[in-house]
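To: structure subgroup
Subject: Chain for Friday's discussion

All,

I'm putting the inputs and outputs inline so they're searchable in the archive.
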Amino acid sequence: MQVILANPRGFCAGVVRAIEIVERALDRYGAPVYVRHEIVHNRHVVDTLRGKGAVFVEELSDVPEGAMTVFSAHGVARSVEEEAKARKLPVFDATCPLVTKVHLQGRRYAKAGRTLVMIGHEGHAEVVGTRGQVDAPVHLVSTEADVAALDIPNDAEIAYITQTTLSVDDTKNVIAALARRFTNLIGPDVSEICYATQNRQSAVRDLCKVADLLLVVGSENSSNSSRLRDLGQDEGLPSYLVADGNAIDPAWFEGVERVGLTAGASAPDELVDSVIAALRKLGPVEVTQLAGVEESLEFGLPRELRDSPIPSQTRVMSA
């Protein structure tokens, strides 16, 4: 069997930064460190950090007085920030800088008096946080039908923003529907869409051209991982989202010669390795990697954590 790895795959810069913030906070201040919401949407990452002393909660009311607190990579509403400030909780904000950029765009558009539309998925942590960052109503749409159903005059001044785990391809039809309906529409340039989402989806499309079956490593609650699996299905390939090598079903591979393998932006490479190890139990495996975009972007850490070394044995995983 030939296993062909997508490139790029796995961790993006925002995820690396978020995990490192939790690790360095644990190293500098000791356990427990309280994290509001899963730091990233990957069960292995969350469980590993929990084993090191991170405590994951959904509400700040579950954080004891004075406890070190981290906001997840998905971002939070202003009300959460204000609650933490009122309680005088020491906080490190691990919100991905690209998510913060969307917050700033939304506030700028709202301040200019435009009606704001967000392209995203109802209930996703990033959408909840972004809507809570804007001091104006934010209309959420996911499909072209949602655009048609908006109770907004066609000549209204509209601006749109997008959830970062959606790519240019994911949003282009909805943006086109907005442009067809509203005569006064503005929004961010497509170049401002999250690079990691777009790169991983483009890599999967390339992978589907040479593979017989697609495996995506990631968690079920990871929006970008689920979308990679959906892309494989759209291309006509049997496509499966797996948490790790334990989820492999030998029956999937009957008659399969070339397996495409990728990972969502919140999935560590060690989980990809576990899938390859599981495939080796089925027979000989040759591993190759597609050429692709090389990602070099890094996001800085909070000043208070920059000088805090992390012993190699305490690392969750490397990017």
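Points worth raising on Friday:
The first strand starts at residue 2 and ends at 5.
The CA atoms of residues 179 and 195 lie 23 Å apart.

D.
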